[in-house]
Amino acid sequence: MLQRTLQRSSFRARVILRHLSMTTATYSTAGTIDDEVLLETIDTTGVITLNRPKALNSLNLSMIRKIYPQLQKWNEDPAMRMVIIKGTGGKAFCAGGDVLAVTEAGKTPDHPLPKAFFKEEYMLNYKIGTLRIPYVALIDGITMGGGVGLSVHGLFRVATEKTLFAMPETAIGLFPDVGGGYFLPRLGNQLGTYLALTGFRLKSRDVQKAGVATHFVESSRIEELYKSLLSLSCPGPQDVSQVLNHYHEQNPIEKDKDFILQTHIDKIKNTFSGATVEEIFQNLERDGSEWALKQLETMKKMSPTSMKVTLHQLREGAKLNLKDTLIMEYRISQGCVRGKDFREGVRAVLVDRDNTPSWDPPTLEGVTKEVLMSYFAPLPVDRELKL
After folding, report:
1. Catalytic residue among 146, 147, 179, 345
2. Is 97 noted as a catalytic residue in this protein?
3. Is pLDDT larger for residue 368 or for residue 104?
4. 369, 382 in Cβ contact below 8 A?
5. Distance from C-alpha of 292 to C-alpha of 271, rounded to nearest angstrom
6. Where residue 109 falls among pLDDT bands split at 50, 70, 90?
7. d(C-alpha 53, C-alpha 320), whole Å
8. Which of 169, 206, 297, 329 is catalytic?
9. Is position 169 annotated as part of the catalytic site?
10. Span 224-268, pLDDT tens digits
11. What separation in angstroms does the CA of 90 have from each of 56, 160, 172, 380?
12. pTM for this predicted structure
């Protein structure tokens, strides 16, 4: 049984790493294609279309710099009533952020990209989370990392049977950023802690049942839904909600199927409530079930530093608002750029693709409290994220 468990754990880790590899296959630092993101004003609705299908609509800095000012203009325009964001290509909403460019730039001391990318991405996340008008994210396809930041803070998130959600950052020496410290702890029952530490992938209706999405609509009806939203005259949040509810209630896919983690919810709540990663490991070992051993083996492949940073991030984020969470996460991001595991994880997964990262330190015990808290230390005043 244990051998079978280890094989399954190894398979899941490979799948997570393959998706991470896909997200950075064709990244560029600045972006040279004018139409990588399309911005339209249709009557009283602003429409953002992520248009890098060959790169699974992955988010780069030039896209952020196009979206943010336009979103700000729409938010300040009293005539605007709604924003819709979607992706092209049929495979992904947005499969992640430009981590390959960031780690490459991070090899050069004081290179501006690691500061600018995370800072401006988090500013965009905060703008989405504080819009005065409804923000509807049509997450029809792969939604990971940066794509989560572009969607989860909006008022409405619409998943389909093609949606795949994951926050697999601990596999590359990073952490579930883009406000993950805010929304993950609020999923309840330690589900967010579990998703963050293991990189477990949610698919289809499970994305909505977990609370990541607000609605679940058939992929074949997304275009119809989009047109229905555009047809609304001066819509408010309640009008948008009524349209989304209508499509959600008509969707028969997996309607009577239990949440994929339902049978494990009590175990997740009990084992992942530990105050430290070591305690979570001990809880899983004490449980001893096939499921528990599978989680344990998956986590043993992750960066020890990332796991400890992630757990502290989520525990702190549970007490903070979105603004203060993002300020905290910016400090963590700069710690990751300074550290070794982020570069090593990207090397192992995205550059050499040997999938055998050499973590430093290689054990949880080696990540001392001093090392852990250095990731959360305030930055010089002129370098802090200001929202």
Report:
1. 146
2. yes
3. 368
4. no
5. 9
6. confident
7. 35
8. 169
9. yes
10. 999 999 999 989 999 999 999 999 999 999 999 999 999 999 999
11. 9, 11, 26, 43
12. 0.91
